Known about the structure:
Layout: H1 8-52, H2 57-68, E1 73-79, E2 82-90, H3 94-99, E3 102-110
Antiparallel strand pairs: 1-2, 2-3
Amino acid sequence: MAPCSRGAVTAELAVGVLAVVALLGVLLTALSAAIMQLQVEEAVRGAAREIARGESPETATALAKRIAGDAVIITVGVDGSTASVAARMQVPGPLAIVGGVVAQATASVRLESAP
Length: 115
């Protein structure tokens, strides 16, 4: 082995490990974002169902927070015979925070009329 090529394998291995760690970080952030998105969608669906049944916005918000967690921000709007629910939540993790990855969803329902 030539004296000038000593340490080249170590440097290449270090760069390779760094690339694998970076790729793993991106993949874990994407997986976390997908899971958060599903939770937020389920939360707005549940909250919209509660409002359609005649429950208060506070009850619907409590249900959404129970499904998606306390970090979710819920917005409820009622306009005549239609209600809409929007939710937004920051995806956890260092790459997601730096990249500004946010899970968000909306749902609209027609309010049920009283019997």
